[in-house]
Amino acid sequence: MKRVVLLLLSPALVLASAAPVHCINIAGSLYSSLSNAVEVSRTNAELVSKRNADFVISTFDKPIVDSFSTAWRRVGNGTLSEESVVLILRMANGGYSARDLGQTHEHKKFTFRWHPATIAIVHTHPNSSSPKPQEEDLAVADKYRVPIFTITSRGMYVYDPTNRKITKVMENLDWLEISKWKGIIAKHQ
Ligand SMILES: [Zn+2]
């Protein structure tokens, strides 16, 4: 009887121990970090307290700021009518990471699937639009309870659903440069 139990258990144990290694080695760092982010969001209720503009700004680092530049270049530095979206995600290791959502080729909007580990949404506005978060942006931020940032040629703005205010974070294109962020990030820590 004991033998039967062992035989039934062993395949399951092998799968459980092999799965994470397989994921990291073969799927690559992006996929493993995304799956980590999903995992943490399911178990981490304190995520809600991270979803305010001041905290989100304190997480910005060079890779996150670089993802803003990539998103901005993709929309022709604001000359195209398309928009780009970058999500700021909380990762399983306690860090924060930008997830660039690529291109959808939509006119002045961007449709994407909500990611549960999101602590903020950052998106471009075309040069022909208002640089501030618009009504639809505010509705998304209020619904998902995350701050929504705009990155534009006339500054970076944020709408924070915790105090329902829109504030200017950076002037003009200053948000493209990590050197300009240093003082602002320190102030929010
Ligand atoms: Zn917008």
What descriptive keywords fit this protein?
alpha+beta; 2 domains
Walkthrough of the structure:
The protein is α+β, with helices and mostly antiparallel strands. It has two domains: 2-43, no CATH class; 47-187, Cytidine Deaminase, domain 2 (3-Layer(aba) Sandwich). It has helices at residues 2-27, 29-43, 47-50, 53-58, 62-74, 135-144, 178-187; strands at 85-90, 96-100, 118-124, 148-152, 155-160, 165-170. A six-stranded mixed beta sheet has the order 2-1-3-4-5-6, sandwiched between helices. Helix 1 (2-27) crosses helix 2 (29-43). The chain binds zinc ion.
Count every helix, treating DSSP H or I runs of 4 or more residues as helices: 7
The termini sit apart by: 60 Å
The CATH architecture designation of the largest domain is 3-Layer(aba) Sandwich
CATH topology grouping of the largest domain: Cytidine Deaminase, domain 2
Global shape: globular
Q: Helix/strand-derived class?
A: alpha+beta
List the helices and strands and how they pair.
Blueprint (H helix, E strand, L loop, with lengths): L1 H26 L1 H15 L3 H4 L2 H6 L3 H13 L10 E6 L5 E5 L17 E7 L10 H10 L3 E5 L2 E6 L4 E6 L7 H10 L2
Parallel strand pairs: 3-4
Antiparallel strand pairs: 1-2, 1-3, 4-5, 5-6
Helix pairs in contact: 1-2
The site of zinc ion (ZN) has 6 residues, from loops.
Characterize this entry briefly.
The chain is α+β, with helices and mostly antiparallel strands.
